[in-house]
Amino acid sequence: MSEYETIRVEYDGSIAHITLDSPSRFNSLTMSMADELLTVITDLSDDPSVRCLTLTGNSEAFCSGADLTAFDGDASDAPRLRRLASTLHDSVIQLHQAETPIVTGINAVAAGAGVGVALSGDLVVMNEDASIEFAYPRIGLTGDGGATFLLPRLVGLRRAKEIALLDEPIGADHAVSLGLVTESVPADEFEQHLHDVAQRLADGPTVALSATKRLLTESFDRDLAQQLADETNTIAQAAQTEDYQRGYEAFFGDDDPEFVGR
Fold this sequence. Notes:
By secondary structure, the protein is α/β, with parallel strands linked by helices.
């Protein structure tokens, strides 16, 4: 994989760790970062050797939203915002459609465009010192990055409106209680725990895990009969994998299964 200017990619076995690392203040989203994120997510999602992805930010922030220094603060910004949002949205779609399990790690503040990206993980681990901030009302803009899609699905419409309209920072414990994130982790344990969660997924039956997350996501757009039909087809397909054979043999044996992701 090529080198990037705003993103770091590090491999640990079958895990690919992605770090948003913009030179802009508070790790804000530049056009370069949006372009590179789309490339990285697309490439890694199609890499059969990668069985889990993590996505976090550098030491300053997860992502504090768009880099406002690139704008003029008037109507001339509309084309720039349209291009930035469109590219970011392609990345968010890739995150949601990726077959590879994804764990996002909110290491510090996730604001504006960073909110949608941070909440797009299948599992979301949050540093106890971090915060989530909708932020758009502060500059008179509306939400993007998938935030207005994810918030009502995660916390309900009434609570989503409260988060978006009142724009109060949300700490880690509150985010857990709302259902925004999976868990809050002490700062000194954050990086190791993020890796441990990813390792657990990477060691699992990743074909079945990927199919399961797809079933859960697509259930919102179906009625019961459609969902049951897809469950039938999917479980029959899963029975044809090597991981199913390994799991079946281990069920009747003494050792835990060693899944291989196929």
